[in-house]
Amino acid sequence: MKTFYNLILVLILVIFASCRDLTNLNVDPNTISQITVDPNFMMTSAISQVVKPYQDDNYNGDCAGVMSYLQKSGWGSGLTYFNWSDNRSWAGNYGMLRDIYLLRDRAKATNADFHLGVALILKSFEFGYITSAWGDAPYSEAGEGAANTKPKFDSQEDIFKGIIADLKSANTLLSKSASSYSNINPLADPIYAGNPAKWQKLANSLMLRFYMRLSVKSPAFAKAGIEEIMSNPATYPIFTSNADDALMAYPGLSSGDSWGTAIAWDGTVAQGNYTRLQLCASFRDVLVGKNDPRLPVWFKPVTVQIVVTDQFAAQGGDVTIGNKRYITRAQVASKGYVIYDPATWVASTPSATTLKTLIDTAQYVGIPLAIGKTEPFTYNLNPSPLQGGANQHVSALTDMFSLKSHALLKAKVMGYAEVCFILAEAAQRGYSAGGTQQTWYQNGIQASLTYWGVGGSYSSYITKAGVAYNGTLSQLIEQKYIAGYLNAQETWFDWRRTGLPVITIGNAGYRNSLPLRFKYDMTELNVNGDNAAVAVAKLVPTPNTAQLGNDDSWSKMWLLQ
Q1: Residue 111 lies in domain
Q2: CATH of the domain at 116
Q3: Using CB atoms within 10 A as the burial measure, which of 30, 231, 454, 488 is most buried?
């Protein structure tokens, strides 16, 4: 009976307790709800998650090799031989968009126009990359989560128009005086420290980038868009100096927030990314040919230079003294060595059927793109070949790239130099660009030299043969290409559109031309197959497309058709 009465008492207490409001009891005091979170708590993460992976891919991803900036001495088939046969996941990109959408929604809910403008810029930037790299993609129905796990693929044309519409909205949202905004925390913004005017300039500068990307496919649309911006500077302010560059510094507190080749986190210096990434021959040729002052900022001379001479023939030849390795002419002839020449190296590159070996006797040496029989880590008679290791006869990165952070090494969304080159091309195409082609071309060169700390060499550099203005598109794009070092994906998009600069590739490439796009994510093909199939069917094969169906890295998306 006593147990029975105790049970009755417990039941009565439970009934009374159930009448209480349990809402507060169901809220975890140690977490921030997505429903109530302050947009400032989300903005830092949204920005960094977009910008850092973009910079990492720009610097040491496959495009850095395809665009002949860098080569890897090991484990870099996509970068060195552009083996892009595998599907590339965009899960990370769409993962970033979830945070961006949450920032956007919270900004709307709290009437935070500054945060909403930033969210629209980040959304536009990310979708601009996705559609430029893959082609058609989920856009209008993306980000709906469980409500729509099979979003349709929007056309590239519609995505670009949506991007530009969002950037125009961001321009309006960010056009008010700074005092008109509330709840801006400068510490939450790792790019502009909460400056709406700077973000507004970025929105319009990105519009210039995307309009120019459409200039061949939709020339009238691109021309009208660029001229609208340039004829209304008060309404559409753009970058006007390097001080406007959209940059994010690396704190260097961990491997996740340090520059990608920092040796502090590699575990082994001998085979880390800093050692593995080395100069590419084609980029070397461009820089050396113009005695470019940025070359020693980015790359070191070889540790030991090869010299062909009979001076030490009596000692048997192939003698290393100090920082020189001397090889006799007889040895060159007997071993079938061929000295590197930019104009003829492809024809003389080792292949599966020849025993000839390419050597480079210059002070700065780069590994040729898709060189042939020779493995990258054995190039130029490396006496200590190590896959992924250093090579005393090939130029390495300068010391600043080994650091966790550096004043010159920041994740870049966009810079003033790129804006100048875009407007120079716009003028070259006959657009009203707010200045002449020559002015914008020279401004772009000066901006790049100044950024890299060699601005004092501008007056002499701008008069050099091949640099002095001649009005050609090839010269303009070449200088944009040089300035685009560390932003390889953007120069890849330019190359696809213009065919410039001309990239020389060896005999060991996965195909005999450079790739044009990323293959669709395999998960998307499996889960959202019907919608993906529509996008794949719209791709156009090229002579270099393998028998893998339309979804190939050498097929043409709408933008390139």
Answers
A1: 93-246+526-536
A2: 1.25.40.390
A3: 488
Whether omega before 501 lies within 30 degrees of 0, making that bond cis, reads: yes
pLDDT (average), residues 232-248: 98
pLDDT at 355 over 70: no
Say how many CA atoms lie within 13 Å of 330 toward its Cβ: 8
Residue in this structure with the two tokens 């790299």, named with its chain if needed: 133
What's the structural domain count of the chain? 1
One-letter amino acid of 268: T
Q: What are the backbone angles phi and psi of residue 502, rounded to the nearest 5°?
A: -70, 120
The C-alpha atoms of residue 196 and residue 177 are separated, in whole angstroms, by: 8
What is the structure's pLDDT at 549?
Answer: 82
Report the sign of the C-alpha dihedral through residues 153, 222, 191, 295, in that order. Answer: positive
Contact 62, 518 (CB under 8 A): no
Domain assignment present for 20 = no
- Asked whether residue 17 is domain-assigned, the answer is no
Written as one string, the DSSP assignment of 454-510 is -GGGHHHHTTSTTTS----HHHHHHHHHHHTTT-HHHHHHHHHHH--S-----TT-S
Residue appearing with tokens 């009374």: 16
- Measured CA to CA, the distance from residue 130 to residue 151 in angstroms comes to 15
**Of 285, 481, 478, 509, residue with least CA distance to 395:** 285
E strands, 92-200, are: 137-138, 153-154
Separation of first and last alpha carbons in the chain:
87
The two three-digit tokens of residue 199, written as one number: 């973000």
Distance CA 348, CA 304 (A): 24
* pLDDT band, very low/low/confident/very high, at 299 (cuts 50, 70, 90): very high
The answer to whether residue 271 scores a pLDDT higher than 80 is no
Q: Find the mean pLDDT for residues 460-475.
A: 98
Is 196 within a domain?
yes
Q: Using CA atoms, how far apart are residues 189 and 114, in angstroms rounded to an integer?
A: 11
Going from the C-alpha of 541 to that of each of 16, 94, 549, the distances in angstroms are: 72, 27, 8
Query: What is the distance between the alpha carbons of residues 53 and 47, in angstroms, rounded to a whole number?
Result: 11
| Mean pLDDT confidence for 231-236 | 98
Give the three-class secondary structure for 357: strand
Strand 277-279 relative to strand 319-321, pairing:
unpaired
Cα(74)–Cα(473) distance, integer angstroms: 35
Q: Is residue 181 part of a domain?
A: yes
Hey, is 411 helix, strand or coil?
Answer: strand
Specify the range with the lowest mean pLDDT, choosing from 298-302, 332-336, 345-349, 413-417: 345-349
* Chain segment 317-330, per-residue pLDDT in tens: 899 999 999 999 99
For the residues 492-505, what does the mean pLDDT come to?
97
Q: How many angstroms separate the CA atoms of 411 and 248, rounded?
A: 5
Q: Which of 36, 45, 4, 58 is nearest to 412 (CA)?
A: 58
